[in-house]
Specification:
Endonuclease, Chain A, four-stranded mixed sheet, globular
Length: 118
């Protein structure tokens, strides 16, 4: 379960493609919110057909690195939580996953269940 965050994002993207789940990679959002932000989510999962964004997925790839990854450092952790809370205030939930959950398909299982509820 080594590797960088991008490796795990690519692995999740492969599974999304295999299952035909609509998504946008590196989705920019909150540009038109008050106050405006320039946030990027690893993935936005979209409604088939309309392309409407239903929820966000973040891969916290450095979770188990010695010294922690960017998502575990105090300032980054706080900013991630602020972003997640602001997204929820605008109706966008964030599903956060770690590499092991991508590797064992737990993450894709959650995504499939959430897509099924759309």
């Amino acid at each position: 379960m080594t590797g960088d965050s991008d490796q795990w994002e690519r692995a999740l993207e492969t599974r999304l493609k295999q299952l035909g789940i609509a998504y946008i990679r590196q989705y920019k959002f909150a540009l038109d919110w008050t106050p405006p932000r320039a946030w990027v989510a690893d993935f936005a999962i979209c409604e088939e057909g309309s392309g409407a964004v239903k929820f966000l997925v973040e891969v916290d790839g450095g979770t188990f690195k010695t010294g922690g990854g960017g998502h575990n450092r105090a300032v980054a952790y706080q900013k991630d939580r602020e972003r997640d809370a602001e997204a929820m205030c605008h109706g966008l939930y964030t599903l956060r996953v770690v590499p092991k959950q991508i590797e064992n398909d737990q993450a894709i299982g959650w995504i499939e269940r959430m897509v099924g509820r759309m």
